[in-house]
User: What shape does this take?
Amino acid sequence: MISIRTKLSLWLSGLVIITTFVAIMIFESMLRQAFHDSIIARLEEDLQQVVLAVNFDDGEINIDSSQLSGFYKPVYSGRYYQLNVNDLELRSRSLWDQRLTIEPLTKGESRSWQAKGPQNHDIQLLSIGLSNADTNIKTTLTVAQDLSIGRQVFTQVYGTKLGVNLAMLLAMICGIYIVLRQSLKPINEMQQSLVKLREGEITALDIKHIPPELAPLATTYNDLLQYTSKQMERSRNNLGNLSHGLKTPLAVMQQQVEALGLKDPDAAIALQKQLDQVHKMIERKLAAARITGDMLPAAQMQLPKDLLDLSQTLDKVHQAKQIKCEFEIPETIARLPIHREDGMELIGNLLDNAYKWASSRVYVSATNNKGQLNLIIEDDGPGVATEQLTQLTNRGKRLDEATMGHGLGLSIVKDIAEQYEMSLSFEHSEKLGGLKVQLGFVEA
Assistant: This one.
């Protein structure tokens, strides 16, 4: 999913780019039209000047060059005129040996067009049809101007304008990025606050440092947190009260079962089994109530910090064996969904057992597979026979009487695992050859 900042940046940048290029095209068209109009206006002035210089004397036609601008004298100066009378042509000195191809026009008729002129340059031409009432002579007068110099000026002006527009476009895109970054900075700060909230560093969002647009959302979120906390506390208290309230009736039933044992031992044994199951269920629900009420991220077991603390402690306890404990914990797994105290006891027992039996290496790894967190502890010790793996969690059961301990560690591990409804399995380690213990957590 594309972020809001990226989407706004793309849309605004695209809008600015399109607008800028449309403006450049419009400016180019207007500038080109203005350039053309200025050329035509100058040619009209030149045309009027040449018309005034044309003389009809005794059937002869001549042009008084003294009345004309000096631009017509230098060869190929860029400004030209030509007067066509039947087969006669009167040309400006600037045309030298070149001639303009002109179509005869009637009196008052005019024509404007572009063509190739001297030195194969593009020229703008303007013609007008003339006649003399006395001599009845019809002529066509044409003035022309070289477009190369004007086009150079046009290119310079347009190029400068284009460069300025592109620089402004780049500045606007940078401005859009900076403005959006600063405008959305409160959202990033709010995101960081949510991370702190998840980590347990804070208990609510600080409304004072949140923009007015986001304040209602933050207030609603805080209200929701408070409501959820109260609901969890109420459910926890109700469950605890219910569990404690059942203890008295169960105690009475226990007495009745003991009395029944004197008369009907079989029935008493059957009822005692059911009472034991009820007692265990109550204990589990009380533990679940504690977990539900206190399971904040900050109270969870941190990885790999807590595991390193355990290994450092066990290194000192088993320093005579010189055990090397290796860890492979992905950075994406920062905690285990278990209370730190319970986790230290559970994993501490498993690591202590691995240290006791390992020859030189203990390997701890963690994986995350579709929301299922797995913690694996392996050692390079002698391992356990396949038929004895299922007996490891029996309370007080010890497979090697020569090893120090009371045989209660793995049973405690089993009890804590059951409280948190996590999977616990014992296998042979293919990596190190000893025992492999795998804990499966359902990620919160």
